[in-house]
Write a structure and sequence with these properties.
This protein is an all-alpha fold. It has 2 domains: about 60 residues, DnaJ domain (Helix Hairpins); about 140 residues, Four Helix Bundle (Hemerythrin (Met), subunit A). It has 8 helices and no strands. The two termini are about 50 Å apart. The model has no long low-confidence stretch (mean pLDDT about 85).
């Protein structure tokens, strides 16, 4: 099949303005009325035929679609696009897995250890809330919880949250805040002996547990 772009001596990526300029230049070069030395009637016929197609955007598009090179280029572009899309999906999946393993799982263990040990600590304290030794042991428990909470916060901030896990990350964020508020109320109880502080701290821990469960539900949804 004749390459019309070669006839007009232009690139297949040429604009419509460039096509018109090339056509006019070649007509002037080969037309019998302008250049007797280079006049070429057959060339003029080929140039006119090429411009008739390439000069019309719709006919040019149809012509381009019929060219083997163009089809191959489109096929390669489609393949490259598919490969990039597949690689992007694989990278995203890897990022999700790493975030769950490196961020979520350790935080989940640390916070669950804090939350699940509260009931036993409160039971010990209930024997005599005003006993200095029991209060001291409860204070030790709170200090350990505070240390674990700080570690969880540092870990949570250690890497960006994947966009796809934004809801799960938000639930962890709220969970950590609830734990912090709960520990603050328990600390207040150790020097005020105000039962409302103890009850309020337990309520904060209950909310923290809910947010932790929400995190797992978000993760299950993403996995599915």
């Amino acid at each position: 099949m004749t390459n019309l772009y070669l006839i007009l001596k232009i690139s297949p990526q040429a604009s419509q303005i460039e096509i018109k300029q090339a056509y006019r230049r070649l007509v002037k070069e080969f037309h019998p009325d302008t250049q007797s030395v280079t006049a070429d009637h057959e060339k003029i016929i080929q140039i006119n035929a090429a411009y008739e197609i390439l000069g019309d955007p719709e006919r040019r598009l149809l012509y381009d679609q019929q060219q083997p090179a163009k089809r191959e280029h489109r096929r390669e572009s489609a393949q490259n696009s598919y490969k990039k899309s597949r690689q992007s999906a694989q990278n995203e999946q890897t990022e999700l897995i790493q975030w769950q393993q490196v961020i979520y799982s350790p935080i989940d263990r640390m916070i669950n250890q804090i939350l699940k040990s509260l009931s036993l600590q409160v039971d010990y304290l209930a024997a005599d809330p005003f006993d200095d030794q029991l209060i001291e042991e409860f204070q030790d428990y709170l200090n350990k919880c505070q240390t674990a909470l700080e570690q969880a916060k540092i870990l949570f901030r250690s890497r960006p949250n994947p966009p796809k896990l934004a809801k799960a990350a938000a639930s962890i964020y709220y969970c950590l805040n609830q734990v912090a508020d709960g520990l603050e109320e328990f600390q207040r109880f150790t020097y005020s002996y105000d039962d409302s502080a103890l009850h309020q701290g337990q309520e904060f821990f209950r909310l923290a547990q809910q947010f932790l469960k929400e995190t797992e539900r978000h993760l299950q949804y993403v996995r599915s």
